[in-house]
Amino acid sequence: MYKFLAILAFLPLLFSSNVSAADLSAALNPDLYSAEEHIIYGPSAFITQNGSNNTSYIYQASVSNGNFANIIQNGANNYANVLQSGELNFFTLNQLGNDNLAVASQTGISNSINLSQNLNGNQFNGSQVGNNNIFNVTQNGNSLVTMSAIGNGNVFNANMPSGTNYQMNVVGDNVKASTTGQR
Fold first, then answer.
1. Structural domain boundaries enclosing 103
2. Tally of structural domains, the chain
3. 72 in a structural domain
């Protein structure tokens, strides 16, 4: 409840001054695991890019309650594409390094993707259809992750410290998948 009130207290600042994506990211506590805890009315999107040849696209559509997307890219030749439709979907991406690619799609209610791609040559392709699905992915160089969830209440964690290639697909409800290393 206190986290929700802190976000509500931060919103007037957002609309009354120039607040950066980093400021908003700092206000949203990173230990929150579901989009339900990031209620922002109306779609909100923030892009911060440093370096050269970085490209980002965000498309969000919702009926009444907002979707949130935050992309931060540092380095060169990074690409991010986010499509969110439905309600209360949350996406955050931090790409550090060069030649990283992230493509994400969320359809449904209260889905969340928290993606961090560090170093160079990471690729992420994630799609969630349903409600209350969560992806938490950290990649550290030359990793490839393809994830797909169709259903409700699915949770994926992929920490790829030296990973090379992963693919996780699920059709159903309440599947918990986790991985760490190379495959």
1. 30-161
2. 1
3. yes
